[in-house]
Design a protein that fits this description.
Blueprint: H1 2-21, E1 31-36, E2 42-44, H2 47-65, H3 82-101, H4 118-127, H5 133-141, E3 147-149, E4 156-157, E5 160-161, H6 170-174, H7 178-186, E6 194-201, E7 204-212, E8 215-220
Helix pairs in contact: 2-4, 2-5
Length: 228
């Protein structure tokens, strides 16, 4: 607990330094959130993992195509509300936090085939009803790169996830780490959605991001400078 307090104090000092560079007089308007930091190195994806993933996909696609097609439901533009628009703005800020982390949670997908399930494939099929099983398989396999983050998901690349959101598992689209959940819960009901995200590992600040809704004003790997 003491180390956690020290870390938050360091993060608060860093927030003051960063916001001062931008001429922000009230740094507290950028809510402080401590999130995990993925620390990894890139490695060549083993042929065994690629083969196992392909075999898993084939079985999953066969099961999805054996079931009745579920029609995709297009969102009604007229149904957009202030709350849904605000959720979109909150999601944009959350995505910036995930970019700052760089995929700590993605490691969980290493041995469960990217969390892909039957529901994932049925959802994808509803969006692409004309695609054959071969085409669906090709769509997922061509997004598996030659390299991946060591010990992580087959889609975990240096620049993020290799899959667009429509192809990801619900687990990936819906998961928030503790720090990000707390940030989202504390966001005020009105006004700008601002955050200062500090990504940490082994009780050290690895990266930080100053975010104003969909704009990432600063992403830095510099540690805080201790106050005199």
């Amino acid at each position: 607990m003491q180390q956690e307090r020290i870390l938050r104090e360091q993060a608060a000092r860093l927030r003051e330094q960063v916001t001062d560079r931008f001429g922000v007089r009230e740094p507290d308007t950028f809510q402080l959130a401590v999130i995990p930091a993925a620390v990894h190195r890139m490695t060549r994806l083993p042929a065994r993992r690629r083969r196992e993933f392909r075999e898993y996909l084939i079985k999953l696609i066969d099961r999805a195509l054996a079931l009745p097609l579920t029609p995709a439901v297009d969102p009604d533009p007229a149904a957009e509300s202030d709350s849904s628009l605000r959720e979109a703005r909150l999601q944009a800020a959350s995505n910036s936090a995930c970019a700052c982390c760089q995929g700590s949670c993605c490691r969980g997908g290493a041995h469960v085939h990217a969390f892909l399930t039957l529901d994932t494939l049925r959802r994808y099929r509803a969006l692409h009803p004309d695609q054959s099983s071969r085409q669906i398989l090709a769509a997922y396999l061509r997004r598996v790169g030659g390299e991946t983050c060591e010990g992580s998901c087959v889609y975990h690349r240096a620049d993020g996830c290799g899959l667009p959101r429509e192809m990801r598992a619900d687990t990936c689209n819906d998961f928030y780490c503790n720090g990000l959940r707390e940030f989202r819960a504390r966001v005020p009901a009105t006004g700008s959605i601002r955050g200062f995200f500090v990504a940490t590992a082994d009780d050290k600040i690895i990266r930080a991001a100053l975010v104003d809704e969909e704009r990432m004003l600063l992403a830095s790997s510099a540690p805080p400078v201790d106050a005199d």
